[in-house]
Design brief:
single chain; 728 residues; alpha/beta; GIY-YIG endonuclease; 7-stranded parallel beta sheet; 6-stranded parallel beta sheet; binds adenosine-5'-triphosphate; binds zinc ion; DNA replication; EC 5.6.2.4
């Protein structure tokens, strides 16, 4: 930013960043009479059209023959903290700055006036001509309250025309309804829980960090059911008392009905909810309430990180280890890491909560960069579930079955005791692979290097990567043998079939993201499970985390080895996390719980660490392994995915890029090799991996490399992923 000038006057210039995939701000002339400052939201011409942009810098030159800014929008300028965040995220991820701005920029307000909802009120004398319908409407409106027209019509079982006629007769007055409250102030003392001694200590430390109003990161590590939520609510309460705003980031906001209820029980109102399904005017109003500082607590998905908080006093990242925090398309940022950045920019404390923290966060805590607070016990003296392994090499289910004898017995015992069981299998659909018994033909996605997953309930074969759907035919498309297709391996739907056969009297349900009826129904079913309406739940990772099912006392993991063989450097960590989360669903209520994990490899270090009940053992071993391999957080990693319409195009560009790598000391460029998903949505993909020592400035290196390297031509695209989480 220029030092001398704080505003661009008529005749001067400004650099305007446009929320599109452009890295540079463009210079425009400021027309006479207009005075612009940094952060102002303006309209500018771009090619043949007009577009919105933000004044990023005040230029020093004269307008000359530059295009002119067309006008200034009547909306608050972008906050300097948010501009800083945009700059930082763009620098770190190598995404185009304009694309990052698109995450942070509010759309200019819709100018069409919002049609207020109309209400009617009993205000005058009864009409000269009375009818039964009119009488009902008048009776329903007694008391003189303002009632929405449609609600009154429904309450009185009359048509809207009847109400209108009473308005015409002067019996009812018509008035605009007050707007639905979007930001009612939460009450920090609405329903304070009685905290245990350990909880109270941690809560006090968190509240103190809020009071200190300074940047500081705390890892809140507590076993499943220890009351992490309850405890960080105390930090939120403190922020509310100070009149400041809190952001609670959650990995899957759409499924957090239980969380919202808990928040309401604690603070008397719902938090402001921010996610992609909040649209239109509601979205605008919430943004305005956040910018105005009235919305005190926002619970949101990762995009809530880019909202224009007026006075952010606390950021909580719940389940900080979750992979869902990493955005893979467009700007590929990790919301947990960027939350820490925003905390720093805002001088606000950040709480990272998890029962199974990421290795990165653990190492930061161990090295003293983060404060480490622990809740080592479950609340109310409850025990963590006892864990046992089932050796599938000995206790082998018959062909086409997946539940071992030991697990069947445990479920039977649970059914007799009227307690709930959860069978966990992280595979959607009926079967991961379909093949022809006669010729061996396998059903593959035409657009991706992936098998089509049999979804029997939907009667379709589906690609989980691109969404391609086809009908399951009756004969093999290759050899035309009728009825020769066979399903290989289990998915949750198939497991549910087995459950129905084994336990016909049990009330069972399958829960996965394929659940018919969408998120709303799914929420209801999760509630129903919590209320004990099902005996057996078959589910994917969707049911593994965050939920509180008090009657659940048994968790059976169908395939504990799944995920350990993927070759992903994070495979061990992920498996450890998901297994600890899912087994943590057992025994959260009055009765103790247990979990059985089926495996072909009972001596695998991840499993023995889990069984030992000593997570430190796992973290120590995994930390040592990562350190030895120079993997994050001990080194830095980036992936470059080079894709093109043909294999040849992608490969030749990837090779040319590799040749120009010119890696200095401390930098290693690996590849190109075919990406594990070699074809995705019809695009051929090659991958280069950049691995550097921790002290290397990875971003600077990548930038200089991409600048001197060959420029992508034709269909070729290069996608940069700093800190890749998924190695597909
Ligand atoms: N001090 C308390 N008073 C009353 N109930 C509590 C208290 N602490 C925790 N609980 C209850 O214990 C259960 C588990 O608490 P909570 O969900 O906060 O744990 P968590 O550590 O977030 O669990 P997870 O990591 O498994 O999601 C909840 O039903 C919660 O209401
Ligand atoms: Zn596909």
């Amino acid at each position: 930013m220029s030092d001398e000038q704080t505003s661009g006057e008529g005749g001067g210039t400004v650099d305007v960043l446009i929320p599109l995939g452009l890295d540079q701000a463009y210079s425009y002339a400021v027309p006479p009479g207009l005075s612009l400052k940094v952060g102002d939201v303006v309209q500018v011409p771009l090619g043949p059209r007009e577009t919105v942009g933000v004044v990023w810098e005040i230029g020093s030159g004269r307008g000359g023959n530059l295009k002119r800014v067309s006008g200034l929008y009547d909306m608050p300028p972008l906050d300097p903290a948010l501009m800083k965040l945009v700059d930082w995220v763009a620098w770190y991820t190598l995404a185009a700055k304009g694309s990052v701005l698109a995450l942070a920029l509010r759309r200019p307000p819709d100018d069409t006036p919002e049609r207020p909802k109309l209400g009617v009120r009993l205000a005058g004398a009864p009409p000269a001509r009375m009818t039964p319908a009119r009488a009902r409407a008048i009776t329903a409106a007694e008391g003189g309250l303002l009632i929405a027209k449609s609600a009154l019509a429904e309450a009185a079982s009359v048509s809207a025309a009847v109400i209108d006629s009473l308005v015409d007769a002067g019996t009812f007055s018509i008035e605009p309804m007050p707007r639905e409250q979007i930001a009612t102030a939460p009450d920090p003392d609405y329903a304070k829980p009685e905290l245990s001694e350990g909880q109270a200590e941690v809560a006090a430390a968190l509240a103190a960090s809020v009071k200190a109003a300074a940047y500081n990161v705390t890892l809140l590590e507590g076993v499943t059911g220890s009351g992490k939520t309850e405890v960080y609510f105390e930090a939120v309460a403190e922020a509310i008392r100070l009149g400041r705003q809190s952001l609670i980031l959650m990995p899957e906001i759409a499924l957090t009905a239980q969380f919202i209820d808990r928040f309401e029980a604690r603070f008397g109102v719902k938090p402001g909810l921010w996610h992609s399904a909040v649209t239109g005017r509601k979205r605008e109003r919430l943004q305005a309430a956040i910018a105005g500082g009235e919305a005190k607590v926002v619970a949101g998905a990762r995009s809530a990180l880019f909202l224009p908080y007026k006075d952010l006093g606390l950021i909580v990242v719940d389940e900080e280890h979750e992979a869902a925090y990493k955005q893979e398309d467009g700007v590929s940022y990790h919301a947990r890491d960027m939350a820490v950045v925003r905390g720093k920019i805002e001088s606000a404390p950040v709480i990272l909560a998890s029962a199974t923290p990421s290795l990165e966060t653990r190492v930061n805590a161990e090295r003293g960069r983060y404060t480490h607070l622990k809740l080592p016990e479950r609340f109310g003296g409850r025990e963590l579930p006892g864990l046992g392994l089932v050796d599938l090499r000995r206790d082998k289910p018959e062909r086409g079955r997946w539940i071992s004898g030991a697990l069947v017995k445990a479920i039977e015992t649970n059914l007799e005791a009227k307690e709930q069981s959860l069978l966990f299998l992280n595979r959607r659909g009926y079967a991961p692979l379909t093949l022809c018994r006669d010729c061996g033909h396998r059903f593959q996605c035409p657009n991706c290097t992936a098998w089509l997953v049999d979804h029997r309930f939907r009667r379709a074969l589906v690609c989980h990567h691109c969404g391609h759907v086809e009908r399951r035919p009756h004969e093999c498309p290759a050899c035309h043998t009728p009825e020769s297709l066979t399903a290989c391996g289990p998915g949750v739907e198939r497991l549910a079939e087995e459950v129905a056969t084994l336990f016909p009297q049990a009330r069972s349900i399958v829960l996965s993201s394929d659940f018919p009826g969408g998120t709303e129904r799914l929420k209801q079913e999760l509630m129903a499970v919590a209320q004990g309406e099902f005996d057996i739940v078959v589910g994917t990772q969707l049911v593994a985390k965050g939920h509180n099912f008090p009657g659940m006392t048994l968790v059976g993991v169908i395939d504990a080895d799944l995920g350990l063989t993927s070759g992903d450097p994070r495979a061990a960590e992920r498996t450890f996390q998901v297994l600890r989360q899912v087994t943590g669903r057992a025994g959260r209520g009055e009765k103790p719980g247990r979990a059985l994990l089926q495996t072909h490899d009972p001596s695998h270090p991840v499993l023995t660490a889990l069984i030992s009940g000593d997570p430190e053992r796992f973290y120590a071993a995994e930390t040592a392994a990562r350190e030895a391999a120079g993997l994050p957080p001990f080194g830095r990693l980036a992936a470059l995915i080079v894709s093109g319409n043909t294999q040849a195009e992608a490969e030749s560009h990837a090779r040319a890029l590799a040749r120009s790598a010119d890696a200095p000391a401390g930098v290693m460029v690996l590849g190109p090799a075919e990406a594990p998903l070699a074809v995705l949505r019809g695009r051929h993909r090659m991958r280069l991996i950049v691995k550097t020592a921790r002290e290397v400035n990875l971003q600077d290196y990548l930038r200089s490399w991409l600048k001197r390297g060959p420029k992508p031509k034709g269909s070729v695209r290069v996608q940069v992923d700093v800190d890749p989480q998924s190695f597909l």
